[in-house]
Amino acid sequence: MVIPVRTIFCGTPQxxxxxxxxxxxxxxxxxxxxxxxxxxxxxxxxxxxxxPVKEAAVAAHVPVFQPExxxxxxxxxxxREANPDAVVIIAYGQIxxxxxxxxxxxxxxxxxxxxxxxxxxxxxxQWAIARGEPRTGITTMRIDAGMDTxxxxxxxxxxxxxxxxxxxxxxxxxxxxxxxxxxxxxxLRDRTVQPTPQNHSEASMAPxxxxxxxxxxxxxxxxxxxxxxxxxxxxxxxxxxxxGASCQIAGERVSKDHEPGLFAGEIRIAGTKMLVGCGGETLxxxxxxxxxxxxxxxxxxxxxxxxxxxxxxxx
Length: 315
Fold this sequence. Notes:
By secondary structure, the chain is α/β, with parallel strands linked by helices. 24% of the residues lie in helices and 27% in strands. The protein contains 7 helices and 15 strands. It has a 7-stranded mixed sheet with strand order 5-2-1-6-7-8-9. Strands 10, 11, 12, 13, 14 and 15 form a 6-stranded antiparallel sheet that branches. It has a two-stranded antiparallel ribbon with strand order 3-4. Helix 1 runs parallel beside helix 5 and helix 4 runs antiparallel to helix 6 (222-231). The chain is elongated.
């Protein structure tokens, strides 16, 4: 008879939910409790709502603990009294203090959305797409006191589609994470998974996104701009200036031989397409434009409403 791995699940957003549900469905795991962020005001009405992980835990009748700060003595007491074999942590949103790392017998096991040591940090999916990576994946690791520097346990690769956006890739990686975490925990229990130290010299960072990351630099090649559009969807998006106002842009790279000779940022209507000149004599085809304070419209609706003049450009 296999004794279930007593587990505490620590996470907050939708990305963590498939793994939680998968562990709840496995007879060789006992999810004793869920730790998630406190309920926060969300949406336009600012009504208080549960995190996606809490919603899943409540639906499964799993006890929920929501400390304002995980570093408090109350949190430490909760963890010691729960006496877990492992703590699974996925996108929880707080740094775990070192004194808590030794409480679970198998450690704190994280599912990270990159192929470590590449893209350590808060936004690995966004930066992998924005930097034009052809592949990414999920890595399970035992967390330590550093930022995604712990020993690698298991990993799985997946290609990044040429037009795939952050929400689309995140949904696929969340599904990929679920069986990989179960396999990792079983391997640690059975001592068939051996931790492998990361090669820190190969590390790259994926810092938390800032509003400025979405500002379009039209001197960059169109493919680079398009990659950043995909990576920074839905926030901060891709934005530029037009006649002194800010506007969000959606589009994709087009072959540079469609409409040669545009300066960086210069706008031209070619048939039914809006084209914008980019670095390296490349072109971005614009599909949607949303001026600040206005509704989202097609590129041609924007052009007609703005009465574009020859040589006009985005800032």
